[in-house]
Amino acid sequence: MRTVTGIFDTYADGQAAVRALENANIPRDSISIVSRDEDGNVRNGDGAVDGAETGAGLGALAGGAGGLLAGLGMLSIPGVGPVVAAGWLASTITGLAAGAVAGGAAGGIIGALTDAGVPEDEAHVYAESLRRGGTLVTARVEDAMAPTAARILDESRRVDWNLRRREYSESGWTTFDETQPYDTAPGSLSRPEGGLTGRL
């Protein structure tokens, strides 16, 4: 099994990636989406839904979608804050957080991603991008399906994580630190004017 991961600058692009993965017959329980915007809200294509809202807000975010997107729920990730999430990664984060409380194990978003096989340096960029308002989509697939999943994420406007890491590093960032507050001041996002820097 391989974990194919992409960070997106908008929820709409992440949503499109999830739908395309499902259309390629990748099982829903192999896909995950986690999203947060720069104000601590979860954002849909038409506006923002406050991170503390549930119910109707989640329905609006999903846009009446079926599949994985219909299962969106709220989750708080240390160092990231409130997110809307669905799929295996959300369950893994919740499980790791419970384990960390009970036995001091590594939890949070970094632990969930690295346990799934994402290299740690990439995981730090994905976590920081999520903190700064990105949308993270992951798919756990058989090796033979990995190129197809990667192509789908590219066609859905996945951000090149290496370029994003360079952007963050230029402002002094080194690694994701979940002890830092997740709120970011307006204008502090290291995001390009047009949305995305590049694709893998």
From TrEMBL:
<feature type="domain" description="General stress protein 17M-like">
    <location>
        <begin position="6"/>
        <end position="72"/>
    </location>
</feature>
<feature type="region of interest" description="Disordered">
    <location>
        <begin position="175"/>
        <end position="200"/>
    </location>
</feature>
<protein>
    <submittedName>
        <fullName>Putative membrane protein</fullName>
    </submittedName>
</protein>
<dbReference type="InterPro" id="IPR025889">
    <property type="entry name" value="GSP17M-like_dom"/>
</dbReference>
<dbReference type="Pfam" id="PF11181">
    <property type="entry name" value="YflT"/>
</dbReference>
<dbReference type="InterPro" id="IPR052948">
    <property type="entry name" value="Low_temp-induced_all0457"/>
</dbReference>
